[in-house]
Design goal:
- Helix content is about 5%, strand content about 55%.
- By secondary structure, the chain is mainly beta.
- It folds into two domains: about 130 residues, Sandwich (Immunoglobulin-like); about 200 residues, Jelly Rolls.
- It is globular, with a radius of gyration of 25 Å.
Length: about 325
């Protein structure tokens, strides 16, 4: 570390660009940058579909000619340019690294290194990627008694890509009321049992007053009957939802917690629903089209989910499932 050869510099502007790229408005007027291009020595891609390129800039501490080598098992790594020349300390050079899965194990991390050799030293960066079968939105929404919603998925493989539609379903409405800050009345608990074959379960609490603030926590009881937190929704609103895909079978409890009342009120009224979609849930004409498209790696496919005959006053949920058992949640109304 006392003779680094090359360094990956960053400063306040880079940090602000990174934050802006995450969707946070810093109020500085700095243009956002894709977080993957933040100038750090390590490169990590949490969802590598088809091919992705990242950019880095190095600054010379020791001038000279540097050559790059890079490898990750199951992934082709190409550095361009692969040779960098620095005539003096302080010079900067940019390069791109392109990652393309070749024979990956999908949804499993693969690691390797990018190494620059030259200037009588080596500069090594860790690489980590997770090759993914496809990139798809976590959820989409539509409205109406009958209707449809279209979205795009990006496959990372070639050949048949069977899609399955499960749903739609809605849970019974249960009226509740909490008093934030009250030890006895500040929380309501709802038990639920998840059976094998469940594709999706959704817990939802919606306040009658949008100015109120609720939180929702979902626990599962383990083999020793300990309540283990599975997920939570604790935004600053009175509408909280927790959706679990392919949940483990067992006994659950959803806790609706009053965080703050709406101004001028002493209680917060809400409607609670628990909705389950299983491998046998096929209702309201819920279908996906195309159901069996032919995928070309890196080429987006437009998918349409359709339904008919639902009650427009009730919220429904369904699932478009992909071959790797991930899926896109479809919310209706």
């Amino acid at each position: 570390m006392f003779d680094p050869g090359l360094v990956y510099n960053s400063g306040p502007k880079d940090w602000l660009q990174f934050i802006e790229g995450l969707g946070v408005d810093t109020g500085t007027g700095v243009r956002p940058k894709d977080p993957i291009d933040y100038n750090t020595a390590a490169i990590a891609i949490g969802k590598l579909v088809a091919s992705q390129t990242v950019t880095r800039t190095v600054t010379a501490v020791t001038p000279g000619l540097y050559r790059a080598t890079a490898s990750i098992p199951g992934v082709r790594v190409r550095v361009s340019p692969s040779i960098l020349y620095f005539s003096r300390p302080g010079e900067k050079r940019s390069f791109k690294v392109t990652f393309t899965p070749t024979s990956p194990a999908f949804d499993k991390g693969a690691t390797g290194f990018l190494t620059w050799r030259g200037g009588h030293t080596t500069v090594r960066s860790p690489l980590a990627v997770v090759p993914t079968l496809l990139d798809a939105p976590e959820s989409v929404s539509g409205t109406g008694t009958s209707g449809s919603v279209s979205f795009q998925i990006k496959p990372g493989t070639n050949g048949p890509l069977p899609l399955k539609a499960y749903g739609l379903a809605t849970g019974p409405a249960v009226n509740g009321s909490v008093q934030p800050g009250d030890e006895e009345n500040g929380e309501d608990d709802y038990a639920a049992t998840v059976h094998p074959g469940t594709k999706l379960v959704r817990f939802q609490a919606t306040s009658a007053d949008p100015a109120a603030d609720l939180d929702l926590y979902v626990f599962r009881f383990d083999d020793e009957e300990n309540a283990v937190l599975v997920d939570q929704s604790a935004t600053g609103s009175g509408d909280e939802t927790v959706t679990l895909l392919n949940p483990a079978a067992g006994d659950y409890v959803a806790a609706v917690v009053g965080f703050a009342n709406a101004p001028g009120t002493t209680t917060t009224d809400y409607v609670y629903r628990s909705t389950t979609v299983t491998d046998t849930t096929h209702a309201f004409g819920f279908t996906v089209s195309p159901a069996n498209p032919t995928a070309t790696s890196g080429t987006p496919i437009t998918v349409t989910a359709s339904w008919s005959g639902v009650d427009p006053r009730s919220p429904y949920v369904g699932l478009i499932e992909y071959p790797d058992h991930t899926g896109t949640v479809v919310n209706v109304n």
